[in-house]
Amino acid sequence: MSGRERFGARLAKAVAARGPLCAGIDPHPGLIEAWGLPVDVSGLERFALSATEVLAAHAAIVKPQSAFFESFGPDGVRVLERVVETARDAGALVLLDVKRGDIGSTMAAYTAAYVAEGAAIAADAITVSPYLGFGSLAQCAETAVAAGRGLFVLARTSNPEAGEVQNAKLPDGRTVAQAIVDSVASLNAGAEPLGDAGVVVGATVPPGELDLSRLNGPVLAPGFGAQGATVADLRALFGASLPGVLPASSRDILKHGPEQAALRQAVERVAEVLADPQENGQ
């Protein structure tokens, strides 16, 4: 076992100190251009590091989208490594959005890359896909917990195509998404104050589709902000207390760059809305 404190415990402390916002670091080419930067590695570096310096100082957790870095090749991956280091130095946890999911030795290699002790790009948690069977994630989950890291498992995503698979019914009457939630809950049984395995549930998903009452883990809720979900939607979907829910916002904040003061004001404004939705008109 690693000497690192469990991810669920570290996340609970970070949210208590900074609020539940998960701030995305998504260097989309359009956003890089909107900042007046070239769409090359130099522009990627300036965009990503400038954004990380601000967001990681205010958000409990930041979420770099790996694909936008990988698209620039090895130099882009090196920028991603610097983003992870910069965010950690600023006191934020890092959820690396990689959505990995495979079997056998391939999944073992992904595990070694991101969540094992001594991982090459050592994030605090990563996103993973269970759609080659939930059992394909078993070794990754075990390794992550042993290293004091966590997983967020795709359960009910907000993209329109998701329903045909995730809402399909199993022989026992549950949807595929609910079965994934239940499997994650089994990993978190007995953990306090929060388990190390979370699920991804889009903030735009209709209320009532999932029972999260036994999850005992965090919920990453993309779709907040630019994709249309409001605090009222979060409350309707997850309940008034929003326990363990991490609303994710990226473009709604990043569009205010490149001025760091404007970025800071944007992330503070979102954090205030999440902390006191009624006062902020939600």
Description of the structure:
- The chain is an alpha/beta fold.
- It has one domain (7-275): Alpha-Beta Barrel (TIM Barrel), CATH 3.20.20.
- It is 42% helix and 14% strand.
- It contains 12 helices and 8 strands.
- The chain has helices at 7-18, 29-34, 41-55, 66-70, 74-89, 104-114, 138-146, 163-166, 176-188, 231-238, 251-254, 260-275, and strands spanning 22-25, 61-64, 93-100, 125-128, 150-156, 197-201, 219-221, 245-249.
- The chain has an 8-stranded parallel β-barrel, surrounded by 6 helices.
- Helix 3 (41-55) packs across helix 12.
- The radius of gyration is 18 Å and the shape is globular.
- The chain starts with 6 loop residues before the first helix and ends in a 7-residue tail after the last helix.
- Belongs to the OMP decarboxylase family. Type 2 subfamily.
- Its EC number is 4.1.1.23.
Short note summarizing the structure:
It catalyses: orotidine 5'-phosphate + H(+) = UMP + CO2. By secondary structure, the chain is an alpha/beta fold.
